[in-house]
Amino acid sequence: MDSENVTSLGENLMQAVAFFSMPLVQTVAIAVLAAALAAFLFIGFREKSRTERNEEPATLTGLRVLAVLLAPIWLLIVGYILRSLGALAMDFDATLYNTKDGTELRWHVLGFVGLITALGALVSAPLALIRVWTTERQTRTSEQGHMTDRISKAVEQLGAEKTEVRYTLDKDNTPVQAQRTVPNIEVRIGGLLSLERIAQDSTRYDKGRDHVRVMEILCAYVRENAPAQDAVDFPLMEWEPLAEDASEEERKKHLAWRNARLDVGLMRNPNASQWAQSLDGPRADIALALRIIGRRDVDQLRVEARWLPEALDTAEWVFDTPCPKLPDPPEDQPHPKGAIEAYEARLEGWKAKISGYRGYRPDLRNTNLQKADLSKLTLSGANLTGARMEGAVLTQARMEGAVLWGARMEGAVLTQARMDATTDLTATDVSSVAVRSVDYTNVPLSQAQINGMFGDASVDLPEDRERPEHWPTWELPIDGEHNFHGEWKKWQDDPEGYEPPDPP
What we know:
Among the domains are: about 15-50 and about 60-150, no CATH class; about 235-270. The protein has 14 helices and two strands. It is elongated and about 120 Å long. Helix 2 runs antiparallel to helix 3 (about 60-90) and helix 6 runs antiparallel to helix 7. It has helices at about 1-20, 25-50, 60-90, 90-100, 105-160, 185-205, 210-225, 250-260, 270-275, 285-295, 300-305, 335-355, 445-450, 485-495, and strands at about 160-170, 175-185. By secondary structure, it is mainly alpha-helical. Pfam families: Pentapeptide. Keywords: Membrane, Transmembrane, Transmembrane helix.
């Protein structure tokens, strides 16, 4: 019985060897191995592309995918040719001596030459792909060098200066020539526009490789050329908000100081808001840099969201996501418990999404933006800590998620400016600010900050905040009698004596 088993095992082994010696089986085996190798290479390339911050262009990716997909076919054909060459070489002696008229030998040689030619063509195919890949890399390197040169030239323009010659009279009324070096605004504006074009081209053609770098250059330019220490200070000392637990005597002193600071009259100090409106705006080049930063398009914002190493490659610009609102309850009925819980869940999810943003934020900390026109600009997520924004116009500006910690905004115009719960207004001075058609339901404003503003019925306040008495109870018109701007000015001129107009 044992000998029969051994004999059966030997026969099975011989059959297996004979089976795997068949050309078809060998060809299929080579194809399977080639496919497995190609799959391994494809997965490796894909994981590598995921981990690389600077993605390769579509042309190189296409060549990579083409090479991986053709690798099994290429290996299969090469294996078949090598096997056929081996078979021809083994049968060459028999063909040489057994041929009668040389026909078989001729066909044998022609087949051998044809296989050698095919093998040479197959070997040259990957070499051609390598040559194309190398050429593409060289072209890309040249393009990157060109982009670097463009950035360098534009940055040089940002430092352009010119010499102005002025003539003055000395004490003897003799003309004296004086020279001074001043910024060359025209050349600097050209450099700023060049940087904007570079950022746009980089986003459109190079997946934003240089976009954030350009934004960093622009923000640094504003910080260095318009620092907060150059801002004009209000001539009176700081007016601190009244504490909620203040005594009656403290309230009287606080009111007297408020009148001295804000009232207008003979021999009195100027009103804080009017002072803010009388400030000079930023220099032309600074104003343009701010507008370039604030008019980034959707694709540029998406690049910023994915820029930093800790950001996800699939991250999106989150500050466009509206804050969820609690729907109105049924008439004369409280909110159902389930509706409130569902709203709280949506609100927590929204907060987590906003707070989880790990992308780039424009850095405009400690800058002088007094009387700057920031209307309709996208400043969402921007870091404006310590910025001097007295008298700035922020009409319809996007401010969701902006950090305004310690910013000064006396006399600023916030009509239809968009803020949300993630806008940090900690220690922000918003006295004499005009607000209209804005939703502050989820904006963290203190009662003292709200009391220092001027608004109307178009402003939605948090539920735990009271509407100031000097706010009209109806929505003021844009023009005509009792227009919003005119009523704001009346309140600025006489904060204590101002009486809001009655509804029409």
